[in-house]
Design a protein that fits this description.
6 strands, Aminopeptidase, 6-stranded mixed sheet, alpha+beta, 29% helix, single chain, 124 residues
Length: 124
């Protein structure tokens, strides 16, 4: 389900980079198999967003590689905090985030994204 924030981003995806963020892609044999974005919220805080791995490539450790690259990129940019919005129904993703040090900030209805019901953060 596309929400208003998704539509705005789809209309101008390069704004992520223009506003100081990053788009990371994981490529194997010339094929993009995973992506994520780092939105710059402030000099010290980034949001990890839109992370996904192609369905036929899941379970191979690519999510871990992508997440580690995103964490490292945020650190390189001087971030002290990295947070994400997700959904508690995504147990495998949440386990990956927790394994890498993310903790739950809040659970419940999100004011912007109806599909999100958990906010997690990693202190860098």
């Amino acid at each position: 389900m596309l929400e208003e924030g998704d539509r705005r981003l789809a209309a101008d995806p390069y704004r992520i980079v223009r506003e100081g963020g990053h788009i990371l892609s994981l490529v194997e044999s010339g094929k993009v198999i995973g992506v994520c974005a780092l939105f710059k919220e402030s000099p010290a805080r980034f949001q990890l967003a839109r992370m996904t791995v192609a369905p036929d490539e899941r379970g191979k450790g690519y999510g871990k590689i992508l997440l580690q690259a995103a964490i490292e990129r945020a650190r390189m940019r001087g971030a002290t905090s990295l947070y994400l919005l997700s959904n508690t129904a995504l147990g495998i993703a949440l386990a990956l985030y927790r394994k890498h040090g993310f903790h739950t900030l809040s659970e419940g209805v999100h004011p912007v994204y109806a599909r999100c019901n958990i906010v997690m953060e990693l202190a860098l």
